[in-house]
Every structure is written in structure tokens, then in C-alpha cells.
């Protein structure tokens, strides 16, 4: 049964993640059972065990502080605390004057707009979601993802990993689960773990160890805007068919704009493929 959770928490009580576990192969992810990972927030004493988390004055200050917190290795470094970085992002109060120049909408699909490239260690981007538009079900290629709602509302649907990931193009097993492919096996629908409605200024954490997810704007009369931190950056991920669980490569994920300037070299048709839009 799908559980539904509504998040409209103050920044200091956003959806904090558990201490990060080492990135595992997909086979190891199944063996350790992704569903056993707790997404409940740590106590305030856990987050504040070391230095207090600073409060960014604006989006530019948040970018500066993320460079300091993530250092040279990003969230894969043993010295970096995911909960602390998530608290830092939650501590920034959304201000439209800060992010409006990055929030470029395009009818019929969501857009990925680069804010900062993190010196190659992370990507900070703003995603602009038109009314009722959502992403395909996808993984994150081993990257850590932090998502903050800047305006509107987003719905996150969390899925279990399929027991066996089959590539849609060649019906070949990707290496997760059994290595024995069965071409006659009936398609298996994706299984939903949880649905969460994320309100303005809330922050959620996602990693392949937690499963797969899809994100959508549930609002019918308003676009939504979100701030995403990906570390390490990635260009290609897998998308999954909800009815059959089959996977395919997303194609190279590119940016609709970079630092407030439209990327003119990204053709509309190509961007539609790389945007992972669920349509």
C-alpha cells in the first residue's frame, strides 16, 4: 500500500537524511534492502554536534557556503555530513529576487538551469516545473541529491528498485539482481514505497540506496520551482517504465540555461529527450 506524507515543515525541521552509507553496487543495494533505510530526521543535537550550521543571507551566500561545506570531494568525502549540508540548504529562506533569473520555464516540460558547477564536484541547479508536469521514474547514477522547494509544491513518488533491471533497448540485465535474463518473463509494474508532498522551503534527500523516484508538480494553476544539489555531477541516468519496470538510458542530460543565460546550443527536440519529462 502506498503511504502519503505531507511536508510543510519549517526550514530547521526539513526532511533530514540519515548518516550517509558508502555507495554500493546495485547488487549490493538489493542485498542490503533499500527499504530498511530510515529517512527520519536526526535530532537537533546530532546536527549541532560540531560547529553550528550557518544561515545563508541569500542564494549567492548559500553557494559560497556549499563550496566551503563540500570541500574538494563533495558528499562522498568522509568528512562531509549529509544532514549538515541538508540543514544548510533548509536554512536558506526562499526569496524570488535571488532565483528568478534562473527559473526559466518551457511549456510542456521541466527545465534544468545551472546555478553553479561546484568546481566539478557538484552541480547546483534550479528546476522550473510547469503546471502538472513531472519527471520520468529515474535513478541518480550513484549521485547524492538534495532538493529544496523554492516556490509552489512538488510531489515525490519513491519506488522500490525492481528485483531485476532489464534494459528496454536490448533486454539485457544491467547487473542488479539476477544475471539470468528470461525473455518470456511477464512485465512487472514498479512498486511504490511512498508519496510525499513537499511544500515551499522544505528539503528532501535522495540517493540510489533509497530507491528510485519521480517528481512532479501537482498544481494545476501554478508553476513550481526547486533547487537541486547533485554531487558528484552526472550526465546520464536510467529512466524506468512504470508498467514494465524496464530501464533505458536518459541520453545526455544538458542544461536549458547556465548562470541565467539560455543555452542556445540545446535544440528543443534534443532537450525534450534529455529533460526526462514524463509525457
From TrEMBL:
Residues 169-189 are annotated as: Disordered. Gene3D superfamilies: Jelly Rolls. Its EC number is 1.13.11.20. It is an enzyme of class 1 (oxidoreductase). It catalyses: L-cysteine + O2 = 3-sulfino-L-alanine + H(+). Its cofactor is Fe cation. CDD domains: cupin_CDO. InterPro entries: CDO_1, RmlC-like_jellyroll, RmlC_Cupin_sf. One of its GO terms (molecular function) is dioxygenase activity. Keywords: Dioxygenase, Iron, Metal-binding, Oxidoreductase. Binds 1 Fe cation per subunit. Belongs to the cysteine dioxygenase family. PANTHER family: CYSTEINE DIOXYGENASE (PTHR12918), CYSTEINE DIOXYGENASE TYPE 1 (PTHR12918:SF1). This is Cysteine dioxygenase.
Amino acid at each position: 500500500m502506498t503511504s502519503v506524507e505531507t511536508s510543510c515543515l519549517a526550514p530547521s525541521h526539513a526532511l533530514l537524511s540519515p548518516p550517509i552509507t558508502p555507495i554500493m553496487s546495485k547488487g549490493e543495494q538489493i542485498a542490503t534492502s533499500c527499504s530498511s533505510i530510515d529517512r527520519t530526521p536526526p535530532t537537533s543535537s546530532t546536527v549541532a554536534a560540531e560547529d553550528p550550521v550557518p544561515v545563508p543571507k541569500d542564494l549567492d551566500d548559500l553557494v559560497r557556503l556549499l563550496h566551503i561545506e563540500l570541500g574538494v570531494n563533495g558528499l562522498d568525502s568522509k568528512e562531509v555530513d549529509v544532514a549538515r549540508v541538508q540543514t544548510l540548504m533548509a536554512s536558506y529562506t526562499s526569496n524570488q529576487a535571488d532565483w528568478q533569473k534562473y527559473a526559466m520555464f518551457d511549456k510542456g516540460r521541466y527545465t534544468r538551469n545551472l546555478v553553479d558547477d561546484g568546481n566539478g564536484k557538484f552541480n547546483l541547479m534550479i528546476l522550473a516545473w510547469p503546471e502538472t508536469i513531472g519527471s520520468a521514474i529515474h535513478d541518480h547514477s550513484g549521485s547524492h541529491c538534495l532538493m529544496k522547494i523554492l516556490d509552489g509544491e512538488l510531489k515525490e513518488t519513491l519506488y522500490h528498485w525492481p528485483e531485476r533491471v532489464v534494459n528496454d533497448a536490448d533486454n539485457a540485465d544491467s547487473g542488479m539482481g539476477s544475471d539470468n535474463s528470461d525473455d518470456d518473463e511477464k512485465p512487472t509494474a514498479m512498486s511504490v514505497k511512498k508519496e510525499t508532498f513537499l511544500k515551499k522551503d522544505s528539503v528532501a534527500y535522495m540517493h540510489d540506496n533509497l530507491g528510485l523516484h519521480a517528481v512532479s508538480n501537482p498544481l494545476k494553476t501554478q508553476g513550481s520551482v526547486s533547487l537541486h544539489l547533485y554531487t558528484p555531477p552526472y550526465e546520464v541516468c536510467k529512466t524506468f517504465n512504470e508498467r514494465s519496470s524496464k530501464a533505458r538510458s536518459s541520453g545526455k542530460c544538458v542544461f536549458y540555461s547556465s548562470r541565467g543565460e539560455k543555452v542556445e546550443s540545446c535544440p528543443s527536440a534534443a532537450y525534450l529527450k534529455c529533460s526526462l519529462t514524463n509525457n
